[in-house]
Design goal:
By secondary structure, the chain is mainly alpha-helical. It has nine helices and three strands; from the N terminus they run ααββαβαααααα. It has a domain of 168 residues. Strands 1-2-3 form a three-stranded antiparallel β-sheet, with helices on one face. The protein starts with 22 loop residues before the first helix and ends with a helix.
């Protein structure tokens, strides 16, 4: 993939993050990429301008007639390599099949979610990580967001409803998916989520429960990350270069 000087979709945000710090709030490159990629027109045509302070920890801020939003980055594709309940499965898998090639720390593995707690309750990042029926699975999170837009219940219903004003600015599920270049995790008609492992409803643990399921999860996750990075690259080649002709 040819890289431009504006968005390098192969860049690993851990490389410019101070030791012991989280790239989500300490990588200056990640913060700049978020500003460039998502500071753009919403489906309504309104500009979603994002700004951040000059030094870490980095949070993105939008304030307009649309609302006042503080947003934080989240690494959304977990490898589960530190999940104790999977230790017997992971010990059977070579290390090179556990790190996803570092793709989870490229821009394709990053999302923005509201960062400020409401009524001292979980943010979306906290809820999707702590809820036993989600366990940080991004495909499961997207399914909850899909259900939110069509007024169906999910394990994240309460937290998504708390941030209803944020989701409203995208209009609908299609608007949200297209805005964040997430088309490869949904069907072509946006009616279904493409799960990384077989989905049987929110009735059992989302953690891969066998070696074969873990490898299937890994393969599907990598496929999504590669595809989203390509979409981001293609979009930035057209839209960001047009606004930054020196590149």
């Amino acid at each position: 993939m040819k890289q431009n000087n504006i968005i390098n979709t192969a860049f690993d945000f851990r490389t410019d993050t101070p030791p012991g710090k989280d790239p989500d709030t300490w990588s200056p490159t990640l913060c700049r990429y978020h500003e460039l990629l998502w500071g753009k027109p919403l489906p309504s045509g309104e500009q979603f301008k994002l700004v951040s302070k000059a030094s870490p920890p980095f949070y993105l801020h939008h304030n307009s007639v649309l609302g006042d939003f503080w947003l934080s980055s989240d690494t959304v594709i977990p490898t589960f390599r530190r999940q104790r309940s999977l230790s017997r499965i992971l010990e059977q898998i070579p290390d090179e099949y556990k790190n996803f090639g570092g793709l989870g720390y490229t821009i394709g593995g990053m999302m923005l979610f509201p960062a400020i707690q409401i009524d001292r309750k979980w943010t979306i990042n906290q809820a999707r990580g702590c809820n036993r029926l989600i366990k940080d699975r991004f495909d499961y999170t997207v399914e909850c967001i899909r259900r939110h837009y069509i007024k169906e219940d999910s394990p994240l219903s309460d937290v998504l409803e708390r941030y209803e004003s944020y989701f409203e600015i995208f209009g609908n599920f299609r608007g949200y998916i297209d805005f964040f270049h997430l088309q490869d995790i949904v069907s072509s008609d946006y009616a279904e989520v493409r799960f990384f492992t077989p989905f049987e409803g929110f009735t059992s643990t989302p953690l891969p429960n066998s070696v074969s399921m873990y490898l299937d999860y890994r393969s599907a996750a990598i496929k999504f990350l590669v595809a989203r990075n390509q979409r981001i690259h293609d979009w930035s080649e057209i839209h960001l270069k047009a606004n930054n002709p020196r590149h």
